[in-house]
Amino acid sequence: MLRWMPIAVLLLAFAGGPASASDALEAEVREIERLAFTAHWRESDARIAALAPRLDSLAPEQRHRIEFVRLRTLALAGSQSAALEGLTGLLQQDLPAALRVRVYATAINVAANAEDWPLAFTWLGEGLSYLPEAPAESARLLGVASYLHTLVGETGRARDLALRALDLVESANDPRALCLALSDVALAEDHARNFQEAERWRHRQIEACTRAGDLVFAANGKYGVGKMAASQGRHAEALDWARQALAEAEAAGFAVGAWSARLVIAESLIESNRELDEAQTMLSETLRYYREQESDLAIAETERLLARLAERRGDLATALAHYKEAMAASEAAERIARERRLAYLQVEFDTQLKEQRIALLEAEKELAALQVTATKRRQLLLGMGMFGLLVTAILLAALLRRSFRERRRYRWQSQHDSLTRLYNYQQVRKLGETAFARARQTGQPFTAIVADIDLFKQVNDRHGHAAGDEALRSLGAWIGEIVDGRGIAGRSGGDEFTILLETDAAEAEALLQRLRGRIGPITVFGHTFSFSISSGVCQADGQAATLEQLIHEADQALYRAKHEGRDRVVCANDDADAAPVPTAGLVVVGSGIEFGRHVSERALSEIREAQVVFCLADPFALAMISSFRPDAINLGVHYADGKDRRQTYREIDAAIMAEVRAGKRVCAVFYGHPGVFADVPHRVVRKARQEGIAARMEPGISAEACLYADLGIDPGRHGVQSLEATQFLVQDRRPDTAGLVLLWQVALAGDLTCTRFHAERDGLQALVDRLLRWYPPDHEVILYEAARLPIETPRAERLPLRDLPTAHYEEYTTLVIPPGTGAGSEISRGVRTDGSI
Q: Transmembrane segments in this chain: where (predicted)?
């Protein structure tokens, strides 16, 4: 269960170091900083108020330091918006590098507390750029970076950053910095759900922070120990630690930490079934506070505890009401988490872009260095006469000319298809959008043509791929000759070409007839062959609001040309006069685990050519499909918390079959391999065939295939037994302990209601009890999750069989049980401890 983390506590990590001035005012400023950064906020505020009449006597840097202390105290007191506004203004001032890094560190945490993730990640990037000017502040900013990576789920990277910061402060012998660094490591382990490791780091934090005199972080460490104890079921111990944390947080005036400690106290009282009235009072006050703060994740946690308390008292109606409120708050929190993740990915992208720009600047710097070197050599060789000067000038000119030619060549290659020398897909779309908008503004006709080679696969199969390449090359040259600058022509991919003309459909058809007349026999390696093309034409008639829709209509006309016998031109604008073409059909395709890498060209073609596209895939695959099929229908909307999945499957089945029965060409895209552990794809294909409608299934890369590759397992070595976890329990199947056993959807083990989307300990314990019949408790098993993005790494967590009920699960987690004999030692352990390959 997720718990609300008092993230504002990290604001304390950024204390300012004393300046070198020795006058009385400087001493007063230092004292204010010392009081603020040792949690004596009230004394600090009082001294700031007393210093107000003399602010004009302070140097600009001293005034900035005083303002920083005031804004930081304001944030710790819970006034996030006011503190954020003030810090934004302070960062616009001319600050010394060290102070600027400290301000960035605090501002990033305040922005994170205010859930302004783009601003937080932007400030992080800006702050890191100042580290070379302020190396003494590296540990503080690394701690902030660790914290933000923890929030976006990059726990491995967060742990590495926190440990780097810890190494820096341990070598510097700074007690308070050590206190802060230990808290960062503990937080990263907590979010990684390594509860025992997190508890060990929290004890070190308490010891270091107590020694440093940091009351807030000492209280935070005790809160962390209590939270870890509660997570491991030690509620009596958790209650004691949480009460200590509450008392110390209230004494230090640390409001956020005090409310977090109350949650742990309430949970421990409920789970211990004692002092339930006190728990009720605490939770009611806590809920009111978090609603004022609009902290959705904390609201969800508080509502769940209230629901649990109502269950303890037998008030099921109240419990249900609290669970509904918790679900609503969880949805809002998940939306914020997605925004955090997207902001993080955007920063990652921007960082890579900056690195490329830096590399370009380095290249330009090298060129400038060459020019400087050449200039110096010219000066040294000036005495040798005009001949040497002329040679040097010629060499420099050649260098610059070569650089210009290289840049021009790279630009050309980025815009053109290397085989046909026509524009590539991206450039056609880019130029076409401009031309299409211009035509709409001026009222000129605009026509799209989509053409491809008939039976191109047979050309490759009969004459070889060299012949196929020559056919594409020749067709590209003929298209270039016919268009001749009067339009935009490019290769869309494979054997498909797109031509965009600022003219009407009649002239476009005339151009295609000239192109068809230009096509002739081709000879490759002594073999002569011919080919024909089919084309679809569509003129913008006011219904096509976008260029993408216009090209899609032309592509549909091309499909009709193929259906009518190929080697012809079909105009989409003549559909009203054309005889109806039977188009009903169903194809089910797989998106693979990583859509960008795994989806096949055949599947992409089916998606593009279908009249109706249904998608049941992860959000990233759905977004990529929507980019070229904006009309794609998301089947994921049929799922809902608490809803019977069998009802969901019936609704998806009905939605697909309704379009198939309406006589449309339908493509249904399913995650991974559509025929593995999937009921609906097989059912709709079977139904369509029974009704006399053409239906087939195209395979995809499944999670099982990724599992074998990521874990280095050959299923043919010992054999493999693959079962759904609930099926294994209910049907009392016996595992083959001499071979590999895979149990899918292990998080849903024992769910006979088909309504759960999360793991429950009782079901997992029942699964472990069943497996203990054949395997010892310490038998090593693997929890596997395939990576769905190129920037992700697969999960391969190894643990004893007996620890399965306390592990972390996603809905798609797979349990891998190696052989119970000596053969198990042959399974590769090529996955590092951080989960990467």
A: 380-400
**Is residue 74 within 8 Å of 83, Cβ to Cβ?**
yes
Structure token pair of residue 245? 């944390």
Domain 425-574 has CATH 3.30.70.270: yes
Report whether pLDDT(136) > 60.
yes
Taking the C-alpha atoms of residue 31 and residue 456, their distance in angstroms, rounded to an integer, is 81
* Range with the poorest average pLDDT among 188-197, 634-643, 653-662, 667-676: 188-197
d(CA 47, CA 49): 5
Task: Please list the residues that pair with 570 across neighbouring strands.
Answer: 536
CA distance 455 to 796: 45
CB-based burial, 371-410: b 16+ in 10 Å, e otherwise:
eeeeeeeeeeeeeeeeeeeeebeeeeeeeeeeeeeeeeee
pTM: 0.37
Rounded CA separation 405/412 (Å): 10
DSSP 403-461: HHHHHHHHHHHHHB-TTT-SB-HHHHHHHHHHHHHHHHHHT---EEEEEEETTHHHHHH
- Architecture of domain 7-214 in this structure: Alpha Horseshoe (1.25)
Q: Which amino acid is at 314?
A: G
> How far apart, in whole angstroms, are the C-alpha atoms of residue 112 and residue 123?
11
Interatomic CA distance for residues 336 and 646, integer angstroms? 30
Q: Report, as residue numbers or ranges, the catalytic residues.
A: 645, 649, 671
- For residue 542, what is the DSSP state? S
Distance, in Å, from the CA atom of 78 to the CA atom of 75, rounded to the nearest integer, reads 5
Q: Residue 501 forms beta bridges with which residues?
A: 447, 487
750: left (phi over 0), alpha (psi -120 to 50) or beta: left
Domain borders along the chain are 7-214, 425-574, 585-701, 710-826
Q: What is the fold of 585-701?
A: Cobalt-precorrin-4 Transmethylase; domain 1 (3.40.1010)
Tell me whether domains 7-214 and 710-826 share a fold: no
Dist CA 723 CA 811 (whole Å): 16
User: Parallel, antiparallel, or unpaired for β 814-817 and 780-785?
Assistant: antiparallel
Q: Does domain 710-826 bear CATH number 3.30.950.10?
A: yes
Q: What is the dihedral sign for C-alpha 308, 309, 314, 318?
A: negative
Cβ atoms of residues 788 and 594 within 8 Å: yes
* Enclosing H/E stretch for 744: strand 740-744
3-state SS assignment for residue 92? coil
Average pLDDT, the chain: 82
Q: Are 698 and 600 in contact (CB under 8 A)?
A: yes
Q: Can you tell me the mean pLDDT for 38-58?
A: 69
Angle between helices 195-212 and 175-191 (to 10 degrees): 160
Start-end of H helices in 531-618 = 547-563, 595-598, 601-609
Calculate mean pLDDT across residues 671-687.
Answer: 90
Contact 537, 554 (CB under 8 A): yes
Q: Distance between CA 221 and CA 17 in Å, rounded? A: 24
**Are the C-beta atoms of 809 and 746 separated by less than 8 Å?**
yes
Using CA atoms, how far residue 50 sits from 31, 55, 61, in Å, is 13, 10, 19
